[in-house]
Amino acid sequence: MYNVGRDVLNICLELYAVRKVFIEAFLQERMAASTWVIIGIIVVIVFIVVKLASKKQEVAVKLVLILFFFFMLTAGYVYAAYDIEITSLDGLLKAGTLYFSWLRTVGHNVADISSYAISHEWSLRVPAANETLEG
Q1: Which of 108, 128, 15 is nearest to 7 (CA)?
Q2: How many domains does the chain have?
């Protein structure tokens, strides 16, 4: 009987060891899955940050290109319209002064036109059937 008890005890210990191994394997598999989920989340966050940074950089590059294009068009217009001599330092200084004076004048003109447009009433009033727009 003593051997039977020992055999039962050995079987119980083996079952406990098998159960422990199964639980450990299950936990490791679960930890592996959760580790992959965490790694996936980190990769997605890094991808989003890189995309946002590239979008900001893309906006900055577009802004610089637009400003450069605007400067080249306006400087070319001033150069052609006023027949500026840019071969000497005095000519360059005169061209710069003329360019910024012209740019300031354009800015004032745009402000005048905008204030004139804002001062008008732009409501959508529908006239009655017997009423004209003047009256």
Answers
A1: 15
A2: 1
Q: How far apart are CA 21 and CA 16, in angstroms?
A: 8
Helices (H) and strands (E) in the chain, counts: 2, 0
68 located within any domain: no
Condensed to tens digits (0 to 9), the pLDDT of residues 63-91 reads 888 989 898 888 888 888 888 888 888 88
CA distance 39 to 37: 5
Contacts of 78 (CB under 8 A, 6+ apart): 84, 95, 98, 99, 102
Q: Please give the residue range of the domain that contains residue 31.
A: 1-62
d(CA 17, CA 9): 12
- pLDDT tens digit sequence for 108-134: 999 999 999 988 877 776 666 666 656
Instruction: List the structure tokens of 55.
Output: 């979008």
Integer-rounded Cα radius of gyration of the chain: 40
Query: In the numeric block, which tokens belong to residue 40?
Result: 């996936």
